Amino acid sequence: MRATLDESILAELLPGSWTVAATNFPMWLRGERREPTFTYEVLGTNPLALADDVSYVTPDGLEKHIVGRDRWAHGGFVWRGKGWLRPFASHWAVTGASDDGSVLALHFSRSIATPAGIDIIVREGTEHPELRAMIAGSTEDFGLSLEDFASLSWLVPSPRG
Fold first, then answer.
1. What is the DSSP string of 34-63?
2. 26/9 Cα distance (integer angstroms)
3. For the segment 43-55, what is each residue's pLDDT rounded down to a tens digit?
4. Where are the domains of the chain?
5. Between vectors from CA 142 to CA 117 and to CA 104, what angle results, nearest 5°?
6. CATH class of 7-154
């Protein structure tokens, strides 16, 4: 889907839970945070505002959460943490989506706490057995360069619970 992903489209597309299928973020690749899941809920639409809950499982099986809010600004989102994370902010954008909207590419700008990076997320409850090949065949539709694609590590899905 190479249509412009403006805030009205994203207000329909983002709500729900998503699993990280591929990434180049060290925080997902070191093994300390497994099975990352993003959950978005629309809080308002003028401008688009989202509740953002990033959950993951620790090596000892505990589920942890990073909670924040996202506000639409200048063609992307500004994330701000809640609670003790309130001083932290980051900028991110959805740079592409599959035709059915069940796979998204997210680009994150460098922040004080994280490097710039990319996540490929898949809506929970959908299956994409050839996901890597699909992304490889349409990198431009996902806003990915060949270097971006080559930088991704593909996470092995494992059901929670």
1. EEEEEEEEEEEETTEEEEEEEEEE-TTS-E
2. 30
3. 999 999 999 999 9
4. 7-154
5. 75
6. mainly beta
